[in-house]
Structure of carnosine N-methyltransferase:
Amino acid sequence: MQNLEHVDPLEPPLSPQEEHESDEIEEQKHFQKVLMALAYYRRHSLIMNNRRRYDYMLLPEQHKALVPHLLQKINHVDGLIEENTKILKEIVRASGIFSDGDLRDSVSKTDTQKPPVSANDMDKVRSTLKQFVRDWSKEGEAERQASYEPILNELEDIYCNVPIEERGQLRVLVPGAGLGRLAFEICKRGFSCQGNEFSFYMLLSSNFILNRVEEPEQYTIYPFVHSFSNIRGSDQQLAPIRIPDVLPSSIPPTADFSMVAGDFIEVYGDGTKNQGQWDVVATCFFIDTAKNIIQYLEIIHKILKPGGTWINLGPLLYHFENTPGENSIELTLDDVRDVAQKIGFTITNEKTFSSTYTSNPNSMLKYVYECSFWRATKNQ
């Protein structure tokens, strides 16, 4: 692909070492921005909730009299935001980069300045709280059953004759692992599994939930207090969600569980390092995160052992389709199947499963994806 960026001919190009150092600096800046977003959650959320309080106070008195409980609810949400802040502080502390005081000082300096993070950054923090529900709560079980169970069942079907105590030699890769629940469930069944994740929001949170939690339901969050739309009843909206529903350390001793940070293409697409190293690649709501989905398929094929299996479940909601300044190739489902077969896969066991994604189970509005599922075997 051609690089169309204008380069000043009088300015010498960066050396490989300079490019690497520049990338590291940018990565560190982004990492610090994510930490700042987690630290800024409290102030941003209280400001947004105070807007509701202000709007309520502007109501005519006769309208206030009809819904006197609404102000009480708004005040109560302030307290639940404080509860959410507690776990976000723990996530930041688990990162080992900044102390609470450092972040508190950084946030306090923004009192008279513009916010240190964007609205999009804050949306990602709220999405992270919902991801905890999907991956590590009893309330997320239905979503996990819809999107993880078909993959786990397929894995069990392939290796039904291999005892759990002997599965540790089988290596499974889960790109786009999020908070790590699918990878954990694969390990729980005896397989050695590596999760790969690019988002620092997910990496920090998965590090916390996988390595710092000591008992089930140790923490309580309130992930649905940030929107008052499509709510059936306040009791459901304000109900506590306790995480995790299981202890993440409860895996067989023969299974190896690891998480690798970084872009899927950069980590696994480099030369021959990962070629033929994996028995299974399991992708769940992942392949549409690609800018070039063909490259994803090529890498999956390359890193699988001959006869290895790619198990996929998910939609094709291409993440970069409408992102300014980003290239994006959007293939139809038929195109994806065709390319996979041309690359060297034999696709079998195709199905469709309906699933939501990080939805409020009690909301009046749910986006339901008709997810395509298949088992694809790498040709010998």
